[in-house]
Each structure stands twice: as C-alpha cells, then as structure tokens.
Fold these 2 entries.
Entry 1:
Amino acid sequence: MDPKPESTDEAPVDEPDRTEEPERSDEPDRTEEPDRTARLSLFEPREGEAPPEPPARRRRTRRVLLWTLSVLLVLVLGTGGALFWAAEHYASSVARIPDAFPTAPESAQPKPVPASGLNLLLVGLDARSDVPTTGSRAKAPVWQEGAARSDTMMLLHLSEDRRSASLVSLARDTWVDVPGHGRAKLNAAYSWGGPALMTETVQNLTGIRIDHLAVVDWNGFRALTDAVGGVDITVPRTIEAVGEARAWEAGTHHMDGAQALLYVRERYGLPGGDLDRTKRQQNFLRALMLRIMDSGTLTSPSRLGGLLQSVGEVVSVDDRLSNADLFQLAWSLRSLRPDDVRFMNAPFGGFDTEDGQSVVLLDERPAAQLWEAMRNDRMPQYFQEHRAGDTLGADVD
C-alpha cells in the first residue's frame, strides 16, 4: 500500500484570476473622451452643432469675408482721404493773417473759459488795401498802417454744442480806450495797429477772449453773393433817394452782388444812421445764410468745399486756423438753422461829442450783462431774459 502524502501547513498558492482586472498602465486612456483641445478651427462644430461645412465652402466663406473687409477699409480710407483733400484744397484758398493777436502778456488778457463755445471777431473794411491789377481777382485784405479804418466790427459767438450762434455788432464810432493811444473811436484801432490792436481793444472792452479773427471787405461780398445766385432781401417800406443813396421800393428784392453792396453800405436817409446800417449788414448776412442753408451747402462736403473756395477770395483769417480746422468749423455748423442764429447791436447808450467828433456810447450795465453771457456760453438765456434788446427784427429799413 502506498504511503499517504505528508501534510503541510503551507496554504496552496492560487493562480491569479487574470479575468478580474485588466492590467493597469501609467498612460491615459485616450478612448474615454475625445481631446477637445485639438479643435482649433473657427468652423469646427461644438457638441450638438451641425456638422462642419465642406472645405471648399469654408474657403469660399473666408474669401468673401476678406474681400468685404478689404472693400470697407478702402471705402473708409478713401472717404477720409477725400475729405482731407477737400479740406486742404479748398481751405488753402483762404489767406492767413500773421500776428493777429495781442502781444500783451497772458495776465493782461481775459482768461479763456473752458467749454464755453467759440468767439470770433469779424472785421469789415471800408477800403481794400491791395487793389487788384487789371485782370486779376482781389484777394483778402492785408493790413497796412493808415491804409483803411474798419467799417464794421462784429462779435460772433458759436455755442459749444454748435446749436446756436449770436452775432453782435459794435458801432464803428463807439468811444473806447485804444491801448497805447488813449480814448478814440473803435475803428481807429485797426488803422493804427491792424488786427492785433483791434483784437486787443475789443478784448479790453468786453472782457471776452477772442479765439479767431476774420477780415473782409464788403466789396468782397459782391462776388460771394453772385456765387450763391443772389439773395432775397425785403424792404418793409419805400425809401426815397437821399444824396448818393438810392431809392428802394417796398417789397422783396432779389439782389445780385452789386445791389447787395449798395444796400449794406448806405447810411444816408436811414433814421439811425450807422446804427441802422449795421442792421442792414446783419440783414444781408441773414439773407446770405438762408440762401446757403436752403441750398444744402453745409450738409454736403463737396458743396461746402466750393463755398470755402468762394469765401477764400474775399476773407482772410488768423493763422491759428489750419485748413483742417477751417473745414471742420464749417462742417460743425451743418445742423444750425436760421432760427438758431440771433443778430443784435451792442446796447446803445446814446450819441455824444468828443474832441469835435460825433461818437457812440455804450449802455454800460446792459453791455456788461451781454458780455458776461457771451463769455460763459449763455446767449440763449440772455435773449430770453432781455427780449427788449436791440435785436434784429423781421423789418429792416
């Protein structure tokens, strides 16, 4: 009989069950979830989106986008370039006045008020100092000492938002202090010291800092009036001829440049003399403005350029106004309407005689209120509070 196998205390070693758990690895299991970082195309769909377009269609879409962006870029640059060219071309015809501002130290001049609009001094001359030669067109006037006295002085205030404009005429015989010359008529300042002395005199009188200056001879407006096709001016009552002054029949007259020039230069036969003449000048400017606005000139860059070219034949401005500044200034007025523009004379304080001269005095207290309103861009409020002021009405003799 065979002997039984000897017993042992060691447990039998079981073979591992290789079906229970798969062999692990340090490498990530790439079959669990797709790698979303590989989706770099803008045209690759996200989960739940439609399948991608075919490659040919994607390429065609990209080309369309690129062409569209290119055309838009060309249009933007082309328009900007055209406007820049217009500004340079047309505004270059406007002559510039050097040394048009006072040389007095800043401490001796009115302080500018920030964000308070723009103040321009408009000076009209009674004689052109650069008489054109035969066959040539007259250019904007250039000052020569003693050659001409200013016939008209107007302060033009443009509100900061360009929604209103106010034009105040200063009588040429206004009795004022002219720096370095003592008391004299206002129009003498231009004769003695040109634009700079005129600007300083007006600044001292009003306490308003002048931002820009424009000088024109009324003769020049003859060509400008013809350039816009004439203006319509209503004469409220028949005016008989007096001396060199012509007669005017009551009614609306369509005036060409020559007729408009006669209208603005006359003062004989008018009850208020020079004061009424300033109203005629304002009435003419109002009619000219209406003509320009009705033609859509201010809302068309091309027409605006043509206007600047015509203005350049008769007006000169200070050299602080660049071509781009001049074009931009004109363009900024495109939303202005005739009802937004007010005309008036400076408050009149009476006539007097000084050194044998007939002079005009300002009514100082109302004048101070006017200058304060203009200085602080409050002209609409001023006109509401002073309805009885010497404003330009519908009827002008």
Entry 2:
Amino acid sequence: MDTTIVAPTEAALTEPPSIGGLFIGFLGLGLTGFGGVLPMARRMIVEKRRWLAPAEFTELLGLCQFLPGGNIINLSVAIGLHFRGLAGAVASLTGLIAAPSAIVIGLGVVYDRFKDDPRVGHLFAGLAAAAAGLLVAMAVKIAWPLRTRPIAILIAVLCFVAIAILRLPLLPTMVVLASLSMLVTWKLSK
C-alpha cells in the first residue's frame, strides 16, 4: 500500500470538513503535536486531510501570526470559521485544546511530585531539542511557497535579521516590515 503524502493543488483539495471532522482533526493534532503543533498542523491540514492548498495555509498562517494569541489557536479558529462558521471555530478550538489541557494538568501533578529528580531535567532538555528541530522543519515548509517571490524572501530575511540578530522589538519591526511588504507588493502590481 502506498502511504506517500502529496501536497494538494487547488484541484486536489477535498470537500470542506464537517464540524465533527474539524473537531476530530484538531483533537488528533492536539494529542500528537503537544508543545510543537504547527509543523504537524501543516501536515494534517495541507498534506493529509487536504483542507487547504500550501499557499492558502501559508497566507492564513501569516494572518494568524498578526493576531494576539498562539498561532495554532488562531489557525484552528480561522479554519473552523472558514469552513463552518462559529460552530466550526468552536469545534476546532475545543478539539485542539481539550486533550492537551487534561495532559498538562496531569503532568503538573506528576512534575510537582518528581521535580527534584535530575532525570526530569534531562527529559525536558530533550523535549526542548526536539521542539527546536520541529520549528526549523516548519520554517522550511512555510518558506517553500515563497521561493519564487524574491520580495517576500527579502522581507522574511529582514525580519529574521531584525528580530533574531539585532534584537529589535517584535511589534514595531512587524509593523514596519508588514507596511513595507504591502507597499512593495502594491507598487509591483501596478
């Protein structure tokens, strides 16, 4: 049996998910992607369930990053709203946070009991390394649709340099670069 997952094109997208499908999809995401869910969200939404095309996912994620709150939370609400309105947004959000909330409460109880054990510290160091790897993989997948748009690549590089290297404040940097990006895109479209 072929288990290859192929990123969908616009023509290959599936039917819009039901409210139950949104809940189950995001519930599975919340269970499997604990602590680093964005890379798995893209795989589930774009490659596995084919709800959105790669470019649509990247654009929607970009919008969600400007909103206050966690990106994946915003993304789940936006996808739910897009497909099934308010009920879809509630189903997506509930599915995403139900299991992790129960797990966090349980882990908090366990951690409180064993927090002085050095093996617990090593466990968390390993989890941090895995999360960093997932973040790098996600950055590559998100950037891939931009490979043919040099202006978008330049803005992304400027943002990285400003925030990661120069340590400029996030909000003013994003406001300046978003405005610059819109201005350049508007000028080039004329």
